[in-house]
């Protein structure tokens, strides 16, 4: 799960697997019935692995896998760790609002500057928007750091299913 960029809030990975995608998808579907530690949901070639509701907190991660067929004997697995999509959408909405307010107050400050009127309030609010943006970023980083153990559990579960399913599966691959 190494990432090349520490700024990544939702780590992604990609892995080529020497097995047909339907075999892998069926293995994840079968794992639903064989264990109760995770909730596994399949939709077409997408698999979602989540913690049960009783174990979820605000920033609890989930793992979204997309398993695409390359040919009869190979598949490409794309993985994405992230919070619940509702939480992520709200988080991005806050970023969008802060950016829009920054731009609006920047335009207002520029207009006041050109009109040679007072623009200190607008500059102050722009600085506040930058502080809020950094706060949102650090909140996301703290959420990601606090859920690192859960991400490892999801990753280990995925590797366990793949190890059972795929012949000659190399855990260091990817």
UniProtKB/TrEMBL annotation:
Listed transmembrane segments: 86-107, 119-139
Tagged with keyword Transmembrane: yes
Keywords: Membrane, Transmembrane, Transmembrane helix
Name listed for the protein in its UniProt record: GTP-binding protein
């Amino acid at each position: 799960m190494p990432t090349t960029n520490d700024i990544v809030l939702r780590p992604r990975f990609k892995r080529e697997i020497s097995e047909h995608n339907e075999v892998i998808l069926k293995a994840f579907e079968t794992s639903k019935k064989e264990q109760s530690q995770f909730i596994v949901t399949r939709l077409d070639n997408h698999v979602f692995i989540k913690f049960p509701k009783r174990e979820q907190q605000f920033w609890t991660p989930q793992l979204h896998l997309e398993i695409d067929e390359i040919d009869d004997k190979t598949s490409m697995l794309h993985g994405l760790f992230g919070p619940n999509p509702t939480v992520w959408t709200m988080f991005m909405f806050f970023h969008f609002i802060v950016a829009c307010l920054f731009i609006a107050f920047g335009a207002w400050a520029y207009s006041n500057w050109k009109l040679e009127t007072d623009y200190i309030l607008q500059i102050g609010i722009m600085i506040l928007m930058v502080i809020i943006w950094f706060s949102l970023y650090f909140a996301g980083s703290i959420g990601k750091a606090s859920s690192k153990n859960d991400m490892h559990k999801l990753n280990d579960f995925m590797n366990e299913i793949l190890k059972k399913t795929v012949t000659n599966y190399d855990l260091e691959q990817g």
